[in-house]
């Protein structure tokens, strides 16, 4: 179990918390001695400033979606609980919140926010009841009032259907995640443009963002995965769902086989 997850469970157990889907996280922060304010921020989504008596957490009021604001606040609460001795003031950008690896402290704060907002047991209980697809990710995001990006990472870890994740920024693949012992191997396309026949490429090249009803797009296995000599693309049913954030020019491709 990761340090962030352990810290979040410890906090919840200490205060008798089980499911925070209906609880404003501002109350959690206040109980820990922090004041939360919202205001426009140009270069960060969240900031935490530690004081001798009081801690100030600022959330960017320009964040469009409630789920992302909530995850950002959970991330800052993670810093509050785990990293008080590491810095007096800290800014968090979209990169740190989208799981783009930038140090143990950021990873730990993401783990903390995920467990605080989407406790593992509750997440498994709900997600196990449904077949995987974009609608399930959207349902989980609505239930837990979290960002759909954070839900996708959570499902990668605890969902009962294997999925792969590919994170692209400014038309370059930055990293990918594949389940252990998965039958298919992702082509190593880091620092390259997404495959020309991928849904991610449709966004970066043509600005295409599919509607909810069309968000599950069929792709060839060979689009993202190695195709063995004896295999045919037509023997597989792969799909790609892209979580697009135009403001930051990022795409998280969720890829799975049916």
UniProtKB/TrEMBL annotation:
Domain IrrE N-terminal-like: residue ranges: 32-154
InterPro entries linked to this entry: IrrE_HExxH, Rad_response_metalloprotease
Coiled coil, from the record: none
Gene3D superfamilies found in the cross-reference section: 1.10.10.2910
Name the UniProt record assigns to this protein: IrrE N-terminal-like domain-containing protein
Taxonomic lineage of the native organism: Bacteria, Pseudomonadati, Bacteroidota, Cytophagia, Cytophagales
């Amino acid at each position: 179990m990761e340090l962030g997850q352990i810290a979040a469970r410890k906090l919840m157990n200490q205060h008798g918390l089980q499911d925070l889907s209906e609880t404003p996280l501002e109350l959690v922060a206040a109980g820990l001695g922090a004041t939360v304010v919202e205001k426009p921020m140009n270069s960060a989504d969240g900031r935490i400033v530690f004081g001798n008596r009081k801690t100030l957490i600022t959330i960017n009021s320009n964040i469009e979606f409630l789920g992302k604001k909530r995850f950002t606040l959970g991330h800052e609460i993670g810093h509050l609980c785990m990293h008080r001795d590491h810095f007096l003031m800290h800014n968090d950008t979209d990169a740190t919140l989208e799981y783009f690896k930038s140090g143990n402290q950021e990873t730990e704060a993401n783990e903390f926010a995920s467990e605080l907002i989407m406790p593992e047991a509750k997440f498994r209980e709900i997600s196990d009841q449904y077949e995987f697809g974009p609608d399930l990710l959207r349902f989980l995001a609505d239930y837990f009032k979290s960002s759909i990006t954070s839900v996708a990472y959570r499902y990668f870890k605890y969902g009962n259907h294997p999925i792969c994740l590919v994170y692209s920024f400014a038309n370059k693949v930055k990293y990918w995640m594949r389940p252990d012992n998965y039958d298919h191997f992702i082509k190593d396309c880091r620092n390259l443009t997404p495959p020309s026949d991928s849904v991610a490429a449709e966004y970066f090249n043509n600005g295409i963002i599919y509607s909810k009803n069309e968000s599950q797009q069929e792709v060839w296995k060979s689009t993202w995965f190695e195709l063995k000599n004896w295999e045919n693309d037509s023997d597989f049913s792969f799909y790609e769902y892209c979580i697009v954030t135009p403001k930051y020019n990022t795409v998280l491709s969720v890829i799975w086989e049916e």
